[in-house]
Write a structure and sequence with these properties.
Layout (H helix, E strand, L loop, with lengths): L1 E4 L7 H11 L3 E5 L2 E6 L2 H28 L5 H7 L4
Parallel strand pairs: 1-2
Antiparallel strand pairs: 2-3
């Protein structure tokens, strides 16, 4: 992975983006000496999105399982318990 100073990108954006796209190399742009943003190939982005969806689905299934194990109360009962009625 290559690190580049953000100010060096201005005149070389086409060159840098082509390098990322065609060589599949990830690049980190630094600003004031600190990592600021990453440029990644589209395949990497699609993989990250698929992983996020998988994690979201796992969280959803866990929440459904927990919900099924809990005793449900009606809205009216919840209002009474919370002192809203």
């Amino acid at each position: 992975m290559q690190n580049i100073d953000f100010t060096d990108v201005r005149g070389h954006l086409t060159e840098i983006s082509n390098q990322v796209a065609y060589t599949k190399e990830r690049m980190v742009l630094n600003k004031h000496g600190k990592e600021f943003i990453a440029l990644v190939p589209m395949d990497d982005l699609h993989l990250l999105e698929a992983l996020e969806e998988k994690l979201d689905l796992a969280d959803y299934r866990k929440a459904l399982k927990n919900l099924a194990q809990e005793e449900l109360v009606s809205l009216e009962e919840a209002k009474v318990e919370l002192g809203l009625k």
